[in-house]
Amino acid sequence: MGKNLLKIFTILFFVSLLGAGSFTYATIEKTVAEHANKLTELRQKEIPEPMSRFLFQSGYHFEYPDAVRGIYVTGHSAGGARFETLIDLIDNTDLNAMVIDIKDDHGYLTYTPDSNSPYLNISQRYIKDTEKLMKRLEEHEIYPIARIVVFKDTVLAEKRPDLSFVQNGKVWKNGRGEAFVNPFLKEVWDYNVAIAEKAAQLGFKEIQFDYVRFPEGFERRDEMLTYEVGEYNDGDRDNVQKRVDAVTDFVAYAREKLQPYGVDVSVDIFGYSATITEAPGIGQNFSRIAQNVDVISSMIYPSHWTSYFGIAKPDLNPYELVTEYAKVENHVLGKLENPPTSRPWIQDFTASYLGAGNYRVYGKEEVEAQIRALYENGINEFLLWNAGNRYTPNVNYKMD
User: Fold this and answer.
1) Residue 153: which H helix or E strand, with range?
2) What InterPro entries does the record point to (predicted)?
3) Are 200 and 269 within 8 A, CB to CB?
4) CA-wise closest residue to 362 among 398, 320, 391
């Protein structure tokens, strides 16, 4: 019925255009048909060509290495005299990448942003010239990774207690005097993602998020602290699942927001998270996080393990510890349809705080033992951690 009415009205329209004297039904039928064809042709021409997805271009050129073999670099080192020493180390070895603090463990930016930046008041001028930094990395073909500490953030917590965890009217801090901000809150997510976007604009090719978790032991103080749960208030999930969902959702959200910049996204995660279904207090589920990143970097320093894998004193047995861990991680990642690149953090420091008989002095032999264990288990990428950025000389990093 609708089509017939449309046809009648169309015919009447053309009658008014052509005039009564020239009207014949055949003429109108022919005119209508021609007009419909022309309209169809016009509409087809108006369909836009598919547009390629916008990707930000920093102006720097960095190639992904054969495999990332990197070192940790603080803001102090990146902006100071030690930076040249670290460049020399990379130039003269098979190392090829730097993980540089952009937002540090306290919550400070390690460089000074533009004067109109909302992050100006949390910045420290450790890195005095970011353009000079990136150009030096480009000249020496050093793959640049920006480290952003997310939820451990004393600066933001003290500035905005409503974004943190409160106990007895004060921001709660752990035994080291560190405060955390709340992973449940999207405002906290956006705060960190905006910093990550700026790092991508500076020219970094990868954003590495660290402390993507709740405070250690949170399950023991969950009920004692006052905090908001944002959009995670509804549903039948228990507190453990809510924490796991919040942490996982942040990672997925950050990765989506960073897509236009063409950067990889990586996350640092406790090594033991791969050995259990999920860490109940801190909200880390290894498999779920791994499905939302390009790179997963487990912190597998032998000094940080208890008597795991049947190894009573892991720090004394770096090769054995890393071997056993690698087997577990390979098994877990092997179950995923699209597993990320595995790039663990390994130990290049001496853990004397463990006490006599529980640690060994780490040097060339100990660092190479960890690398060999990774290679033997098919893991070809790794990062070296030394908080003071003093790395062992004469290490064979490729073992060809």
Assistant:
1) none
2) DUF4015, GH
3) no
4) 391
3-state secondary structure of 203: coil
**Residues 108, 155: Cα–Cα separation, whole Å:** 7
The tens digit of pLDDT for each residue in 263-318 reads 999 999 999 999 998 887 999 999 999 999 999 999 999 999 999 899 999 999 99
Residues β-bridged to residue 279: 284
Take residue 170 and report the two structure tokens written for it: 């004060």
Q: Nearest 5°: CA angle at 92, between 86 and 94?
A: 95
**Where does residue 44 rank: exposed (0-12), middle (13-18), buried (19+ CB within 10 A)?**
exposed
User: 3-class SS at 396?
Assistant: coil
Q: Which helix (H) or strand (E) holds 122?
A: none
Q: Encoding tokens for residue 266?
A: 């990586």
State mean pLDDT over 49-76: 83
Residue 159 banded pLDDT, cuts 50, 70, 90: very high
Q: How many residues does the chain have?
A: 400
CA angle at 146 for the pair 256 and 258, rounded to the nearest 5°: 15
Strands (E), 26-120: 69-73, 97-103, 109-111
